[in-house]
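User: Please predict the structure of the protein below. I'd like the answer in structure-token form so I can feed it into my own downstream comparison script.

Assistant: Understood. Taking the following sequence of 88 residues as input:
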Amino acid sequence: MHSDFALSLMAELFWTGLLVCLPVLGLTMLVGLLISIFQVVTQIQEMSLTFIPKLLTATITLVVAGPWMLRKLTQFATKLWTNIPQMF
């Protein structure tokens, strides 16, 4: 395996990981930011007010974007397995 091939494979791995994690992390972060702004404005400091909406957002995002995430991971794994003979 050549070093340039290994570097391109690692870049593709990190890019796939970022794409798969981005919907859940992005929406959860956005909901957390909105709830934090709401808490600052209303001066309500309740811990469950931040935890439960973020948990629901992550769950809904996984249900909605889950098939796409699984498809991306399956495509990457299939490409990796089919390219094994060219690696050596």
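That's the full token string. The mean pLDDT is 91.
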